[in-house]
Amino acid sequence: MTAMQKLLQLPVNAVNMVKTVQSQVQGQEEDKSPVLTPDSGQQAWYSALQPDELRHLRSGGTGGGGGGDQEERAPLEEGGGGGGGGFQTQPLRHDDLKEMLDSNKDSLKLEAMKRIVAMIARGKNASDLFPAVVKNVACKNIEVKKLVYVYLVRYAEEQQDLALLSISTFQRGLKDPNQLIRASALRVLSSIRVTIIVPIMMLAIKEAASDMSPYVRKTAAHAIPKLYSLDPEQKDQLIEVIEKLLADKTTLVAGSVVMAFEEVCPERIDLIHKNYRKLCNLLIDVEEWGQVVIINMLTRYARTQFLNPNINESLLEEGGSGDKTFYGSDEDEDEDEEEKEKKAEAAAMAKRKPYVMDPDHRLLLRNTKPLLQSRNAAVVMAVAQLYFHLAPKAEVGVIAKALVRLLRSHSEVQYVVLQNVATMSIKRRGMFEPYLKSFYIRSTDPTQIKVLKLEVLTNLANETNISTILREFQTYIKSMDKDFVAATIQAIGRCATNISEVRDTCLNGLVQLLSNRDELVVAESVVVIKKLLQMQPEKHSDIIKHMAKLTDNIQVPMARASILWLIGEYCEHVPKIAPDVLRKMAKSFTNEEDIVKLQIINLAAKLYLTNSKQTKLLTQYVLNLAKYDQNYDIRDRARFIRQLIVPTEKSGALSKYAKKLFLALKPAPVLESPFKDRDHFQLGSLSHLLNAKAGGYQELPDWPEAAPDPSVRNVEVFTLLERVTTLTSVPEWTKCSSREKRKEKKVEKPFYTDSEGESGPTESADSESDSASGSESSSGSEESGSGSESEESKEASESEEEEEEEEEEQKKKKKKDLKKPVQESESEQSSEEEERKHQRKSKPRKSESESESDEDEESESESSQSESEDSESEAEVKKKKKTAESKPPPKPLKKESKKEKKEMSLLDLDDFEPAPSPQVTPVNTFLSNSLVTDLEGLSLSDSVLSPATIAPSSALKSYELLHRITGEGLSVEYCFSRQPFSPDANMVAVQMQFTNSASSDTKNLHIEDVKLQSGMRVKEFPEIELLPAGETATAVMGIDFCDSTQAANFQLCTHTRKFFVSIQPPVGELMRPVFLTENEFKKEQGQLMGMNEITEKLTLDVKCRNEHAIVQRVTTAANLSRVPCGSDKECSPPVPPPDYPVHRFAGRTVTSGSLVLVTVATKEEGAAQLTVNCEKMVIGTMLVKDILQALTQ
Amino acid sequence: MTPCRVNVKRWQAEMIHSLFVINHLGDIFLEKHWKSVISRSVCDYFFEAREKAVDPENVPPVLQTPHHYLISIYRGKLFFLSVIQTEVPPLFVIEFLHRVADTFQDYFGECSESVISDNVVIVYELLEEMLDNGFPLATESNVLKEMIRPPNILRSVVNTLTGGSNVGETLPQGQLSNIPWRRAGVKYTNNEAYFDVTEEIDAIVDKSGTTVSAEIQGVIEACVKLSGMPDLTMSFMNPRLLDDVSFHPCVRFRRWESERVLSFIPPDGNFTLMTYHISSQNLVAIPVYVKQSISFFEAGSCGRLDITIGPKQTMGKTVEDLKVTVHMPKAVLNANLTASQGNYTYDFTTKLLVWDIGKLNPQKLPNLRGSLSMQTGVPNPEENPSLNIDLKIQQLAISGLKVSRLDMYGETYKPFKGVKYVTKAGKFQVRT
């Protein structure tokens, strides 16, 4: 405010930083006016009032008596004391308050609390009243109680011990029969920031999360981030609660829990899968603030789960560059090239399978669209950014209207909206073009709004509308707001560079501005003209001449510098004027600003090189002046230039090239929008607005190259988990169309039914009809939607399989192979169709709804579309099943040979990529993952290894891929064999062991539908034709994890069933050992310092204090090799071996070959220090964690 | 666990951390922290920006400081400044702050420093309810009013005598319902529903009188005092006119999408039912024309001004409350004018010329002419000031929008229904 304050700004901030670091117990000090911090040597009670009083003194300078009457307007405060001498009676006043609080009259208590709250509101310290206030926490009067809560939440942190006195009251409240009291008790309890009560809070939250009342559950969701910020150690437990609350079906809870999700575990996108459809459907009824949070989160989610809907369009755009943004064309070429390549690649992909939107993607777009009509600007913006980031290009247009509407709102809203529109208008100009006029500027707009509107107008300018826009600009130039005029001139310059048709017009217009009376306008014009002239200097020597004349009048340094640069650069065009300008400049050299001086030296040098006859002496003179300048930059420049241009015997070889150096052709500058490329930040975010990453910002991920498995969003997961386990055999009807229906049937049965005995055609028919109605009634719209999806997909795949087949070369062989079975199965098909008809009849409402009801209809129609995309793989699956079923087992030989041939041909193709497709089976990764972890202990590890595979070392840990029960008798374990995978060195070898413990044989074991993160690859193991009952087989597959611990998801198929499984590598398996000597190790380590080094202190487990144990544990945790120790006397013989040895391990990551260096330095009493150096920081961090665990347990 | 968090920086988890309310002199007269206390000195960054901006409107709404982000709004000469620490959609905060200011306005009739200072306890209670841990909790005014009663004179007298309170004795059931905007158990003796359709014309007219851009912003404000749980349906004669609309959360989107009718269970009392936008692509009628000439002479340091206003497309209605505001260039010292109708004022400190005309008489067009005295020795201003027009036309929605009927379901009584139309000038600017 005042100059004094400004002066003190820096130290003040420094003080604050220190303060926040210090405990906040000294609240009084914090409130103190920063200006007067130094004289704080007063008594403690005195300082409570001090800041305010002193602030009056401060504001007295600018605000006159304003502060004074504010104080008078606070009767509550002044209450006890009397007028002027108020603050001296303060201790009394507080006693007064205490007395009131201790009385048994509610009215007195209330009065006291009101005064106290008023003090808090003013930022005054009332902490000394804590004991008196906290006594009243159980007061009957509701208002007193509320005010006590306000006080408590504010000061509990400072008076932790006393705050604990109040806890029991809230604990009682948590048990109250009234939901509102329960909720409010939880709310206050969780707001008390006292670490000791963390367990109590955790318990309360857990309980509240399963409360009957949705309002209490909502409060629980609100409490989660509070607890998390108090104690992040609780994260895992909190995630459990979040997971539970995410499944809540009420709108009240949805917004709050997603907020908690975003605060606590935004990276756990997997928690969203099964709630995705529900969130989409609830969205419209959620309260507005929750809508914003959910939409933002779903934007990120969709970016990871769906394919880019514009992948084809962007290609078209590339072809017809007419529609491209201006700036794109001026870009550096090589970047374009790269992009083109990428796009070509993408094009190839797109050609192979046309893009069809995932029905869930469509669901999101459709359900958010009506929210564009919300009265809340934040909601509208959230939807707008969702559309911008996720919608197909043709549909993005709908948001323009809503955004334009927001421009009528408060100026702060306008400000934010315009920033976003500016970014959008670069990418999608067409969208806002119809609303061009809505961005016209009024003289009453605040300057910051004007400048933003100008930005948008400039972005929208093209050949057709440029004349209108320029006419507008002409009006703006006459504005009184000079900052705005300057911005307009810049904008004209940008239009001129971008639209060549109007370049001359703009230039002329700008030249006219040179005679403007306002110096700022002229200066800005000069700067812009300079840039424009650089594009075609030869045509405009008169302008340069004209500008040369301006040097007499223009005083703005930047403009002077620009003119001088222009003259120097194009001195051939103005051979007569240039030396004269230099003469004038030499005269005024000493009085010029620094940037002008530098340009004078530049001009002198250039003239010397082209016209040394006339300018030699002038140049010498200028350089001499510069030599004694106060600014060292100028002195340096002068010395440098003198050496370069004036040939002396001492001058180096460079002077020969002086002319080339100075008079090289300079590329014209590109005038581009400051909003270019800002859309890599999620629009509408704070980071986007600031164009810098704000704390806690979640990156908007890029589209995946292949869509991850969409079946994870099917909701039946939980029921399935229970039910699937009951299936111990493979009944005949496995093939029947929708699995979840089957399982619906199973509900009525007790666990572990002997399905073998009962199974057979009767049951399948039974379940078919039952489930049709069962699923309909029992589950919501989502469920029935997904049910129909899988059903229709079958249909579609059947009808389309033949055309699809023809497209793919490698499929041909298979087709021949399979033709027969297809025909054979026709009878089956027809029976299936009958079944389907039957189903249709049983739910006629459903088929009707295809045209009307919104939720169901869309997903259905979409899914049938999406089939074209996936049917190829779908068909494949289908056929394999059929072959398996129709062919009698006795003749496997012939088939085997053919199969093998096919597999070989698949492997031969270098760029073979498994076609990703949405899953029809409801089994999902979640299931298998959780099972893997759940049942790890149970796994049968009597690994009988086949001789074909490389024997793994005993230390290898095997993981469960498929449990015997889930797998209906088939169990699969895998381990990382740590052997190089011979077909591809960049892959991690995964050895899988299949055990068939069922009573029947398993056939055609193979992998399908591999779902991977971008960049990851999989080499499947050759199909296992037959696995007789009770037998075990082993196979090795290769997975390129791309140095990430992302899971590879795929389906393990038998002749009857598919199992959804995933392999997630521990980070230690992503590397292979390399041999390094200690010297090499140290050298490499020296290059991987700083960010690439992670150090942790630890205490070694008692059992692992000797060298052997350490080495063993580290190498078990990670695939590394030991570096020979320093005591080997290899490098430092004179030094005696250290008392506490240092162990070193080295490896390289499998994919990228980045070095991974691990050092374990032991110290006395089991203390040790672990250091990991790795270029890949994520790998490093995770590795530290794993090794740490291995060494401390 | 602990040692594993090596590079993970932890962020405080909340959306809005603290709120400061600052008056135009730069005094922080209210602060509220939803989490730990943030020192006031964080506002110094704001004061610095405030100083730089000259005009309070030009203070950037979002500021970045080394440890915090400051998001502020300017309402009624007050700055509401919120401190946040992590990524949050800026509009989310801005919208919320406006909602806070709206609530104050709703409770106290205005949103000013004196009113906030007088009701500091209620304000504090409101803030406590509106935000939980920095996340908006109850922002519906109906819900808030159930919990915290707005002050009125009678109650404050009674309260002081009896020690009664503002806090409602009943628990806020509204928060639990599916329609949080409506209180349960509303009872009125006179059941009435009024709707005001207000349209504002935003236009830019250039020197020659041609319209550069024009659009209409409409809003339907409702005052509904109906007992029980009425379900209302409002239909329009010509709903296709509406280009873009936004609704109060009570309006059912789907009905609008499919049938173009507004179907809703109204909140109790005053609320904004919908706002709409009719964009520049449609032809927008401009009710008045302006003939003007403002010129400054190089010699004699004076200027001349001549403005005449006449009716253009008024649909047969009278234009009222006509007012012209001109922001003169700095060099204009004084204005010596004569108005044929109404009167004018010129404030030479703010350089604002206001001509209050009143009713527009089509027979005798109002005119303002005379000379302007200029500062000597200063070059003539190049720019001409633009004219801002204010006007009001009763009983007319300039877009032609008409409510055709209002039906009530769910209750048996016969309510009194009324619709009023007004057209106003919004940002109506004539360039010279």
Automatic annotation (TrEMBL), chain B:
One example of a Gene Ontology biological process annotation: vesicle-mediated transport
GO cellular component, one term: cytoplasmic vesicle membrane
Classification via CDD domains: AP3_Mu_N
Keyword Cell membrane: no
Membrane topology qualifier: Peripheral membrane protein
UniProt cross-references to SUPFAM superfamilies, sorted A to Z: Second domain of Mu2 adaptin subunit (ap50) of ap2 adaptor, SNARE-like
Top-rank taxon: Eukaryota
Keywords, alphabetical: Cytoplasmic vesicle, Golgi apparatus, Membrane, Protein transport, Transport
Residue span, MHD domain: 190-431
Classification via InterPro entries: Adaptor_comp_med_subunit (IPR050431), AP2_Mu_C_sf (IPR036168), AP_mu_sigma_su (IPR022775), Clathrin_mu (IPR001392), Clathrin_mu_CS (IPR018240), Longin-like_dom_sf (IPR011012), MHD (IPR028565)
Location in the cell: Golgi apparatus; Cytoplasmic vesicle membrane
Entry similarity comment: Belongs to the adaptor complexes medium subunit family.
General function of this protein: Part of the AP-3 complex, an adaptor-related complex which is not clathrin-associated. The complex is associated with the Golgi region as well as more peripheral structures. It facilitates the budding of vesicles from the Golgi membrane and may be directly involved in trafficking to lysosomes.
Protein name stated in the entry: AP-3 complex subunit mu-1
Taxonomic source organism: Haplochromis burtoni (Burton's mouthbrooder)
Lineage: Eukaryota, Metazoa, Chordata, Craniata, Vertebrata
